[in-house]
Write a structure and sequence with these properties.
The chain is mainly alpha-helical. It contains 3 helices and no strands.
Length: about 100
């Protein structure tokens, strides 16, 4: 009975809003992680960005993507390169996880 009350358009709009909500949550978490990882921001700048993204959610996310979107991509590439180096180090015979100072 409950399902019969929803039309096709209502289901579409519900799925659209549900998807947009989770897209926003994903972007907000990704942005906060990027802010906290970035080494080029001071502590006050990091706190300001996190505060801005939390207090003014949509405007904060949009502004961060416009202002620091390229830095976000560069930080992701650096992190990916570090992970590849660590994996190759562990894959070598005799490689250990704690050998950060060994060549």
């Amino acid at each position: 009975m409950f399902v019969a009350q929803f039309g096709t358009g209502q289901v579409f709009w519900s799925l659209l809003w549900f998807s947009l909500f989770f897209l926003y949550v994903y972007l907000a978490i990704t942005i906060i992680m990027d802010v906290l990882r970035s080494g080029d921001l001071s502590g006050a700048a990091k706190a300001s960005w996190v505060f801005f993204v939390i207090i003014m959610p949509f405007l904060g996310v949009f502004t961060y993507l416009v202002v620091r979107g390229t830095a976000m991509d560069a930080n992701g590439r650096v992190e990916h390169t570090r992970e590849q180096i660590e994996r190759s180090r562990l894959a070598q015979p005799g490689g250990h996880a704690g050998d950060g100072n060994r060549p």
